[in-house]
Amino acid sequence: MSTLVEEPPPLDPPADRPVVDASPRWQTPLAALGVGVASVVIAAWALKLWRADLALPLRYSPIDDTKFYLALVKNIVSGGWWPHTAALGAPYGSQLLDFPQGGDNLNLALIWGLGRFTGNAALVTNLFYLLTFPLASISCFAVIRSLGVSRSAAAVSALLFSLLTYHFFRGESHLLLSAYYAVPLACYLFLRLLDGRGLFARRASGPRLLRWCSGRSLSTVLICVVIGSESLYYATFAAVLLVGGVLGALLTRRSLAAVGGLVAVALIALTLGLNLAPTLVYQARHGTNSQVVRSAAQDEAHGLKLTNLVLPQPNGRLGPLNRVSGRYDNAVSPGYCEACYASLGTVGTIGFGWLALCALAALVGALGALGARPLVRRASAGVLIAFAVASLGGISSLLEFFVTPDIRGWNRMSVFIAFFSLLAAAILLDLVGVRLRRRRGGAVLAAGALLAVLAFGVFDQTSNYFVPDYTADAAEYRSDAAFVKTIQSVLPAGALVFQLPYVPYPEGYPQTVDNEPVTSYSTSYEQLRGYLHSTTLGWSYGAMKGRADDWPAQLSTKPVELAVPAAVAAGFDGLWVEPSGYSATRDTQLENSLEALLGQQPMVSQQGDLWFFDLRPYARTLLATHSAAQVAALRAATLTPLRTSCGATGVTLTNPAPVAHAAIFSFVLQAEGNGRGTADVSYPGGHTATIVLQGGPVLIRRRVTVPPGTSSVTIAPGLAHAVDARQATLLDAAFAPWETSAQIAQAPPSGLVPPPCVYSH
Questions:
Q1: What domains are there in the chain, each with its CATH number?
Q2: Rounded (to 5) percent helix, strand, coil in the chain
Q3: Cα-flanking dihedrals φ and ψ of residue 746, to 5°?
Q4: Which of 14, 24, 543, 735 could be a cystine partner for 89, CB 3.0 to 4.6 Å?
Q5: What is residue 746's predicted lDDT score, i.e. its pLDDT?
Q6: Residue 632 CB coordination number (10 Å)
Q7: Percent of residues, the chain, with pLDDT higher than 70
Q8: What is the per-residue pLDDT for 351?
Q9: pLDDT for 141-177, tens place per residue?
């Protein structure tokens, strides 16, 4: 019978353990199950789930990513997989392969499994979210317990870990980030790496190729596979943490342990790479999508600050603490503050403080004065590394700038800090428990102390702020369902619905100012509301931005009186309008324009927030008043449009057709700061004009012939230091028969004006 070279010892010697537990081994799995059940029961209490209907989304918000994940779940439970659906991005279909969502394949597989029992995407989303609580608590309990902490203290810390403010803030709006059960496993590898044993062990006998297949080695491989499949973010954070552990092992001359750590990093990277293979292959074939590339400057806003960890959560239950954090957050981050919900809670902050003191004591050579156990010292190293990486302006900034900006939101590494902090808190609870048990009735006192800490921690970390407005959300959800059901009764199966306003997918528009013609959607996904409830219709929304299939993007600056005929020529039978997507001064104007164009009043949802027009009568009129050749030309110009984009020296024009196209190129030119000056504009074909700028915007329209492929309208500032080219658009000659309407000049656009192109000396 084969044996290991060394008997796996505990992470700390028995004398270092505060509690000696000689109870049967079966009690630990039973305790883990109890912790999992307790976590979901407490979460249900915190979320007041008795007010909710689990068949409906727990959250149906217009201002976050909830509907994106509902659509992702629907893609899966409807019999497909997450990247593709034919019902969005009509008529070509939708693909999400430019988004590295495959890093979450393990969670997506769990969603697929839940979908085998029900086709209700809302129910599956709710069940998965609730499942993240026991997954996090059981994972945390198992790891802390394996480190020599008593079951009772491990249970308290595990429950508080699963009930972090971070968890409730993410909720269903960041559904997959709510599943952070791989974090304790990553921290376990880090702690085991630093204890000197190494992550892999070789058997003394047996076939040479199989000697490394020991229990320790196989468990490490399994953990790495889970980490690399559970989340792109947490896998990246885990790899960074382990690299820090490798450096620590090298500094202490534990070269074999360092090699094992590098192997673990490689396994995580390999697993992550396999999960991301479809995205990598797609981008290798089609090129990188510049419109989904992050910027390092943008990601700098997502860093972590010490105050985010130690101050109470915003909108907490404890009045005095809530007022302190409220004043600070309003002063420092008056807008959206994702990192403000990285709070460790009071219990976690105590553990964090102890670890910080240990790290400081180690720096000044006074660690012995604290009597810190080896496990505490290793946990303090983990906190130090995680904070050094995630903090604002920290190592994460260098990784974003020199490696990849795709991983933003480094404040999300706070959940690693939370694990180490709650591990320290569990050790403190055990130390206190040992002293209490020495007194008369000490067992009761110790149990009472644990329950008091748990109750206080739960009260501190949860908040009514995270309880959704179930009544309002249910009313809107049912209104949408009834509205789509009515539309499906009007249109034939397979009919296509064009949607206004145009919103880029995914992530919507950036924040905009109030006077824009279309309101900002930030990262909301309101145009998914039709898809979420339909079973027989196709929707124009959902084509990947930056790709050729996103033909509605080229209609975004055109007035709706041109966009609607284009959609009809492209084969769309209905028009879905979300009036709240337009600014308050435009929705009435929009309704008047559409009613005049289509000769009908809209069908309105129960809540009055959605409109629908049947385009088939208008299509018959269009075919009767225009030739088939004109309609065919408009269809081609709509679905394979001429495109504009910002180039290095001017506006880039793209013609996907093999022949040149006549078009009208229009844009607004303005000197920086509304100043005065001139700019030289050169068009395809060689014509150059000098534009005089006199302190305001100048609208320029010119007939151009756009050759196949790419060409450019070069813009060179003359007397002006810098100029902005705004609202650049190409109007194909195929639109000319519909451009004669007197109302086109006043009609609102079908989308938001794209960002300006800026050119300077």
A1: 28-57+97-466 (no CATH), 471-639 (no CATH), 645-760 (2.60.120)
A2: 55, 15, 35
A3: -100, -15
A4: 543
A5: 62
A6: 12
A7: 83
A8: 94
A9: 999 999 989 999 999 999 999 999 999 999 999 999 9
User: What DSSP line would sit under 90-136, residue for residue?
Assistant: TTT-EE-TTS-GGGGHHHHHHHHHHHTT---HHHHHHHHHHHHHHHH
How many beta carbons lie within 10 A of that of residue 741, not counting itself? 16
Tokens of 605: 């949802």
* pLDDT number for residue 4: 38
Structure tokens at 17: 């353990």
Residue 725 in contact with residue 693, Cβ under 8 Å? no
- Write out pLDDT tens, residues 201-234: 777 666 666 766 778 888 999 999 999 999 999 9
> What are the C-alpha distances in Å from 105 to residues 176, 181, 276, 506?
10, 14, 9, 19
d(C-alpha 377, C-alpha 360), whole Å:
11
The C-alpha atoms of residue 433 and residue 454 are separated, in whole angstroms, by 14
pTM of the model as a whole: 0.89
Q: Give the DSSP letter string of 83-94.
A: TEESSSSTTT-E
Token digits for 694?
Answer: 């006199």
pLDDT above 80: residue 380: yes
- How far, in whole angstroms, is CA 119 from its chain's centroid? 24
Q: Which helix (H) or strand (E) holds 576?
A: strand 574-577
Looking up tokens 């930030």 gives: 522
CA-to-CA dists, residue 56 to 121, 134, 472, angstroms:
9, 22, 12
Tokens for 250, please give them: 């090298």
